[in-house]
Amino acid sequence: MGTRSLDHLLAPLEIGPVTLPCRIVSTSHQTTLVADHLPTEDFVAYQEARAVGGAGLIVMEAVAVAPSGLLTSHTLAGYFDSTADGYRRIAAAVRPHGTKLFVQLFHGGREVISSAPRAEVVSASARPSQRFQTEPRALRTAEVEELVASYGRCAGIAAAAGLDGIEVTGAHGYLLEQFFDPECNDRDDRYGDPAALVTEVLAAVRAAAPGLALGVRLSADSEAARAIAPRLAGTVDYVHLAIGHSATFVRSTGIAPPPPTPRNAVAGLTGPFKLGVPVLATTRIVEPAEADALIASGAADAVGMTRALITDPDLPRKVRAGQLDSVVRCIGCNACIAHYHAETPIRCAQNPRAGRELTLPGTGRDGGAGRGTLAAPDAGSAGRDPALPAPALGVEARRDPTFRGGGRRVVVVGAGPAGLAAAAEAGAAGDEVIVLERAERIGGQTRLAGAAPGHEELARTLAANYEMLLDRGGVELRLGAEADPAAIAALSPDLVVLATGARPYAAAPDLGDVKVLQAWDVLAGARPGGRVLVADWGGEPTGLDTAELLAAAGREVTLITAAPMPGFSVHQYARHQYLARLERAGVRIASGLELDSATGGEVRCRSIFASERKTTFAVDAVVLSLGRVPEDRLGAALRSAGVPYVSAGDCRSPRGLEEAILEGTLAVRSAAVSPSALSPTP
User: Fold this and answer.
1) If 49 and its partner were Cys, which of 97, 313, 449, 483 is the partner (CB 3.0–4.6 Å)?
2) Does the structure show a pLDDT above 50 at 482?
3) What percentage of the chain has pLDDT greater than the value 70?
4) Which among 527, 624, 23, 95 has a CA at the least distance from the CA of 320?
């Protein structure tokens, strides 16, 4: 596999007047690396990293064609004259690497994410949007004509800035689809014709930028898009297909679907959109060999591998070099889009350098540029980003402001995500690394979570990524190895990274003779019989995973959560999928409840909003998912023994995968000093 040639993926592709050097595309996605609706230097560096890595085409994130089209407060404004300067800076960073640069022109219509005071919302007709709870008014005919002109003006700005192409989005239920979808358009002017607006817009863009490639993005799972596609033949140089619809909770998940959505989900939907021009297909295309096969099959001519390129921007270069085994694969966790929905800069749980290319760069020890690559720490950079959390230092460690990896002996305790990230970072920097893990397998809590459908792919891919990274870094992995201060000190480390994770929070009311288990027991294989109540404390995935596993084993399952809704803390796309699977599995769900007491096989739960209100469930077993506490007992022992260490991940405070990997990465950028250098911390 490591040397397999993927000729279809690497072949050039002509798109109108533009020739792509390969068929791997970073498609339009919001980065939030935007200030005052203009691209920042972080935005430039982010795009440059994907060009350095060999992407054939970058379609910059959506730019609004008018103020009414701003999806969020951090959407780029394509209608500013000053945006041209941003385009030029990005092009100057991207062009030297052979990557072509397009921009996507956008108007959200009724799809708007904003807080009060909210601007008026417009659409084809007055049709409320369920997901964002917007209630638009219909655009007047003259306003629609003005928007057509705005598309043309924005195209002219892009052409004057020297971009290679323009993509007009009519996907995901945004404004153009609101006009060509009969369910959203009941107009009686000429724009009541479903094709009128989209064809006028494409004509205006072509007229304003005649020398640029022109494409349209459509949702391949949209009946309205399938109906309109034949009417666009001859107007565009390519068609870009994705899936999903922004207006509903269920269909919005398709925009960036997490596992267990099958990979290459768009592959079987491209047929109706063959218009005699290249088809660019996007949605969960993350594996290079599968992408090559998709092109070979004729389902697409190019592939959007956006999330794969967020994880490893060097993927195209590695594919070209026949180094498939060195690609860091996307795990499908959706940390990237979760940051967008939280209106924070783009991040990747697996690749802490994504969006931090200027503050946490890499050196490319594997032969490439390495900007944004997890396995390539910069030997000459301190990575001092004020937004980055500092490692938690033991009594004998301090941050090294002039980090120079290599030549140290680093001992990492724990092979969960934080420990694995620390070991990979140190190993890639040339340190001698020893990992002590008391279990017989790596992965920590992700390995447990991998027993459930929602995390199986994540856990498997994460483990495979780190097995590759540790092997490339020459890391010594000692499984089944208990660590104590004496054993650690005997290794004479220059730096100890403590990444011992967390354990379940066990406190619960007295439930009498009802059988009680921890959710981790179920994830590890326990299956209590009969009627099972899963008690979740905060809407986390652990309770959802547990309920799903028990239902699949034939148990009668009730899931209660003390949160206002199940999956309250889970990103919305994953939550929607969980709720669909649990509904189909027959799991009974009750929100806003917590455990109170039990008598004779009946468990009473009280409302978190009105504690005097009680609900009783007849059960045979209760499974607790009540949160976690740090597994920090070794840290206390190390402090008492005066053994140097830096901590990372859940042993500091239980959080998520992203924090664990980031802190593990940063932890090795610290220096061990003598025990007398700092006073003990309690």
Assistant:
1) 313
2) yes
3) 91
4) 23
CB 344 within 8 A of CB 387: no
Ordered DSSP codes for 127-172: --BTTTTB--EEPPHHHHHHHHHHHHHHHHHHHHTT-SEEEEE--B
**Please, are residues 214 and 234 in contact by the beta-carbon 8 Å criterion?**
no
| Number of continuous H segments (helices) and E segments (strands) in the chain | 21, 33
Residue 368 — very low, low, confident or very high, per pLDDT cuts 50/70/90? Answer: very low
- Whole-angstrom CA distances from 289 to 5, 270, 293, 319, 322 are 9, 19, 6, 9, 11
How large is the angle between the packed helices 141-160 and 83-94, nearest 10 degrees?
40
Looking at 73-77, 218-222, 399-403, 491-495, which range is the least confident one? 399-403
User: Residue by residue, what is the 3-state secondary structure of 68-106?
Assistant: HHCCCCCCEECCCCCHHHHHHHHHHHHHHHCCEEEEEEE
When pLDDT is cut at 50, 70 and 90, the band that residue 369 belongs to is very low
**Position of tokens 């760069």?**
361
Residue 241: name the closest of 277, 199, 207, 205 by CA.
Answer: 277
pLDDT band (50, 70, 90) for residue 221: very high
Round to whole Å and give the CA distance between 440 and 159.
58
Structure tokens at 6: 């993927």
Overall residue count recorded for the chain in this entry: 682
Statement: residue 367 has pLDDT above 60: no
Supply φ then ψ for residue 268, to 5 degrees: -85, 5
Confidence of residue 113 (pLDDT cuts 50, 70, 90): confident
The pLDDT of residue 374: 36
Task: Quickly tell me which residue has 């072949």 as its tokens.
Answer: 11
The secondary structure element, H or E, covering residue 268 is none
Residues with Cβ within 8 Å of 423's Cβ and at least 6 positions away in sequence, in order, are 410, 412, 415, 433, 435, 466, 470, 473, 475, 477, 497, 664
- Among 12-21, 304-313, 378-387, 573-582, whose mean pLDDT is lowest? 378-387
Rounded to whole angstroms, what are the CA distances from 143 to 149, 345, 660? Answer: 10, 33, 49
**85 and 77 in contact (C-beta within 8 Å)?**
no
pLDDT at 371 over 50: no
Q: Tell whether the torsion through CA atoms of 512, 514, 515 and 517 is positive or negative.
A: negative
Question: How crowded is residue 242: how many other Cβ atoms within 10 Å of its Cβ?
Answer: 27
CB–CB of 493/672 below 8 Å? yes
**DSSP letter, residue 362:** B
Q: Are residues 565 and 539 in contact, defined by beta-carbon separation less than 8 angstroms? A: yes
Residue whose entry in the numeric block shows the structure tokens 């807080």 = 115
- Is the pLDDT score of 231 beyond 70? yes
Query: First CA to last CA across the chain, in angstroms?
Result: 51
CA distance 606 to 178: 45
The residue among 413, 415, 443, 409 whose CA lies nearest residue 429 is 409
Furthest C-alpha separation in the chain: 82
pLDDT at 366: 40
Residue 645 has pLDDT above 70, yes or no: yes
What gap in Å lies between CA 107 and CA 528, rounded to an integer?
52
CB 209 within 8 A of CB 159: yes
User: Position 425: which residue type?
Assistant: E
Cα dihedral 111, 116, 117, 120 in deg (nearest 10): 20
